[in-house]
């Protein structure tokens, strides 16, 4: 090539060159595979066409399900009012910051002492890439997102009886598990023991695959050496100049690895909901609630405790207490979309048919306790090179979640110090907030010895004690779902329900949104017909 | 609990509670494991104590190795000058933006037509969490970092002969590979075929582990169903309200999976260098170069082409051409730290001993071609839900790298459209830049059919044609390293070398920095002794 070219190369210059470089058929590769299932059925903004002629809808609950409905129904021409128990919108889409006060059932009040700019999401804290409806609302509402790290190869896996209580790096457990599994299988294949399962033609390819994936050597062994160290890390890592030669690390013994049970957490990043790339709103999950509030905050009546929902053939009348003035009020509309958690709704008078009533009563709510801990420095980053992600333990705290923002900041940081489920959640819940926090610090110190010296303050949210929720999310079983789910979602006269509990994506905001969109679509069809 | 508590809970309140919640021994868990090998030997900022009494050092090359040395040597009291071939600092730490012009060997000139705010890193593009020295310099230099996504479960794996050329999502290949491997091994274990390898005591645990990790059902089969779908994705994903029930997807047949060879890329995220969490500078990799320039830019003479390096017993004299005035110049110092790539240095006159000369001549440089493509919209996000990460293919482009920044932006975006190695790199290199770009678009269209319609413009960097580099990085073999590495790094009279080529972390900025720190430490010891 001797002549200087004139560039930039623009598309008009390119089309002829492409023809030369590849067959034109390559350029028109079937578009049909685009738009394949990407995690939710969401196909873009809902379109409720047709004039509802002034029909009114009373929405109960200003969580994401209620706010989505308020936004879309008003846009479609409905008259909309929203009643919300709390003094804020968002429901479980909630962020706690310094200066916030929270009083739980039983009366314990916590005032948050986090430093400015730090926060803790006691509810949802991550958004999978395939939660397309939620991502679309974030975009439409101007909510800025940043990546959330789920799996961190340098975070810890900890078992109180595993390796003398010494936490192991996720990467070493992952590498050694892959190595063990691939070596065992390669040796089984090698000895013709798997011929009944794998054809001879595929055996060679399988061996090649196992060697690559499991970091096996040429004799199909996983052992101390460069191959294993490039996966699990080095005893002395490679450096520069003289004295730079690395020293290999030695894998764990397979029986020790198996009996440690630390492999249990290797699947944590394999589940569809936790696969890369996940996101979180910059500044806290309640930025989503704030986004909705900018659009439809004017429709919401805060501090409104619903006590009765009564329908007749003309509409729905809701009785509620204004928590400020402690006076009883009534609101009426043609229709009612109720997004109140079933744990609360089951205690509210509502005249629906037996099928919906039975469904409302059938779903227990998951217990869970989340504790945010502020530390005086981000020691997990500076001392231990853990940037985001999660360490797992079999202690009652279950996990330690590292902040996926503010990396490398010199100041303080807030960890998720406990995310307890099931019996462990009840164990925490039975304690005072201060005792819960102390317990989280004490257990966490087994993983991060810096805990006691660096602890600053904390906030503990036990979901069964959150007055507006009485639990974390609707815990369906296959049996209850088979019996009750359709009855829960079907329109009962002039009342219909929405929320994560009315979805196949329980506990997630996406479930709440899709449930809401499905409900208002069916409501709108009903209104258009009438 | 009946009394409201006074909070926030402060550390002083906590210490007694911790004692109650856990044995005090738990609080003082051995600190010894902290500071364990975290990827590089870097132990924090270098300390060159002692007065060098005005000793001078001439540094050749203003890449990260040279800039680190300039910064640290000046701080230690040395008189420092840096000569740099290019009209910018940073070397391979380089970012191309709209308005930039690049002329390669052979004379082809490209003017970059990227839109404002968009860029392409033709050199390093990611920073592993364990590159502690580089991360520390980023912090010290005020370079802001953001997460870089390597593995994206929703990106594609593509083989031109696999599945009729239809790209597969990474998550389906990963889930099906894990399922296949675990099912084969579980069945081998079940039939007592592996008793020679695994004790009966461990077999039960192994089966439990395989079931969990491989998403096997109770008969240890990996097959269409909820378990597999929660890993590989659904045919119809779960939704909300009525019609929300998901439909399972069906795994690939093991023989099809094996013969597709798409499993080859599953190890891409398992390697230590590519494990989570990785980072990139906000705004482009050259923010690191800019950071160094703020500190020591005043020491750098740009546009200086070194033609000869001659030492005697008193010092080193370097002859160089001022590319602006096309005049020859000379600079002299007590010592010379040369960071010029060996591919270029081997063509420069330098009077060192036979061992170093042989080492300089012994290391070939890796070919590689990187192509940045600007598209009119971020269709990989909007159409295909791919946010960051990499799709891999066996086509010559090797991969498509998605930007790990600007997620959800409505405007244009720049992809890494080619990262070709080896023979494929030579194939691209032999073409004009426009032809390379056309080829990248034509091949990429086999993975993203939107390419031809959405292509806007591109920039192609063939590293063997970059005048200051003549290749991508020093490609050591075990044999050349055994013979030459120590001779390359040892001080020869008054000359010593640094750069990624003088490290065990070739091609990475961390190798260049650690090499430089090691070199100037040894130089300083020498100076202090004399």
UniProtKB/TrEMBL annotation, chains A, B:
Residues 64-519 form the Amine oxidase domain. InterPro entries: Amino_oxidase, FAD/NAD-bd_sf, Flavin_monoamine_oxidase, TAT_signal. GO terms for biological process: auxin biosynthetic process. Pathway: Plant hormone metabolism; auxin biosynthesis. It is an enzyme of class 1 (oxidoreductase). The keyword Transmembrane helix does not apply. Residues 227-250 are annotated as: Disordered. Its EC number is 1.13.12.3. Keywords: Auxin biosynthesis. PROSITE patterns: TAT. One of its GO terms (molecular function) is tryptophan 2-monooxygenase activity. It catalyses: L-tryptophan + O2 = indole-3-acetamide + CO2 + H2O. Pfam families: Amino_oxidase. Belongs to the tryptophan 2-monooxygenase family. This is Tryptophan 2-monooxygenase.
């Amino acid at each position: 090539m001797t002549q200087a070219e004139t560039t930039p190369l623009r598309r008009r210059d390119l089309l002829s060159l492409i023809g030369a470089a590849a067959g034109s058929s390559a350029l028109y590769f079937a578009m049909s595979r685009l738009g394949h299932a990407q995690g939710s059925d969401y196909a873009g903004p809902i379109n409720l066409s047709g004039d509802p002629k002034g029909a009114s809808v009373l929405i109960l609950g200003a969580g994401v399900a209620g706010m989505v409905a308020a936004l879309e129904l008003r846009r479609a021409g409905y008259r909309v009012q929203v009643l919300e128990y709390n003094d804020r919108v968002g429901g479980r889409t909630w962020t706690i910051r310094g200066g916030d006060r929270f009083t739980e059932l039983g009366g314990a009040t916590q005032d948050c002492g986090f430093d400015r700019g730090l926060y803790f999401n006691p509810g949802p804290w991550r958004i999978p890439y395939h939660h397309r409806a939620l991502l679309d609302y974030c975009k439409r509402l101007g909510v800025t997102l940043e990546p959330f790290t789920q799996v961190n190869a340098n975070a810890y896996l900890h078992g109180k009886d595993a390796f003398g209580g010494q936490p192991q790096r996720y990467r070493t457990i992952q590498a050694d598990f892959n190595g063990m599994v691939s070596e065992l299988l390669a040796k089984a294949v090698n000895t013709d023991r798997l011929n009944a399962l794998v054809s001879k033609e595929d055996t060679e390819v399988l061996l090649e695959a196992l060697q690559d994936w499991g970091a096996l050597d040429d004799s199909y062994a996983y052992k101390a050496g460069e191959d294993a160290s490039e996966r699990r890390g080095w005893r002395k890592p490679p450096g520069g100049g003289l004295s730079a030669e690395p020293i290999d690390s030695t894998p764990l013994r397979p029986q020790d690895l198996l009996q440690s049970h630390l492999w249990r957490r290797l699947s944590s990043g394999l589940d569809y909901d936790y696969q890369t790339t996940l996101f979180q709103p910059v500044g806290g999950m309640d930025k989503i609630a704030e986004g909705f509030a900018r659009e439809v905050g004017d429709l919401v009546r805060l501090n409104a405790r619903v006590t009765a929902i009564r329908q007749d053939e003309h509409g729905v009348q809701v009785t509620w207490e204004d928590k400020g003035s402690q006076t009883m009020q009534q609101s009426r509309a043609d229709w009612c979309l109720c997004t109140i958690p079933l744990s609360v709704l089951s205690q509210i008078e509502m005249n629906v048919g037996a099928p919906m009533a039975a469904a409302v009563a059938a779903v227990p709510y998951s217990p869970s306790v989340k504790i945010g801990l502020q530390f005086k420095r981000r020691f997990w980053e500076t001392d231990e090179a853990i940037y985001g992600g999660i360490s797992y333990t079999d202690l009652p705290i279950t996990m330690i979640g590292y902040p996926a923002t503010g990396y490398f900041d010199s100041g303080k940081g807030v960890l998720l110090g406990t995310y307890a489920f099931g019996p462990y959640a009840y164990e925490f819940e039975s304690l005072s907030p201060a005792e819960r926090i102390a317990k989280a610090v004490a257990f966490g110190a087994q993983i991060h010895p810096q805990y006691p010296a660096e602890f600053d303050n904390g906030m503990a949210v036990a979901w069964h004690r959150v007055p507006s929720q009485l639990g974390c999310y609707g815990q369906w079983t296959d049996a209850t779902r088979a019996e009750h789910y359709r009855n829960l979602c079907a329109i009962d006269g002039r009342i219909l329900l929405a929320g994560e509990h009315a979805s196949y994506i329980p506990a997630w905001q996406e479930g709440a949104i899709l449930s809401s969109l499905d409900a208002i679509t069916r409501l709108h069809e009903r209104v258009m017909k009438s």
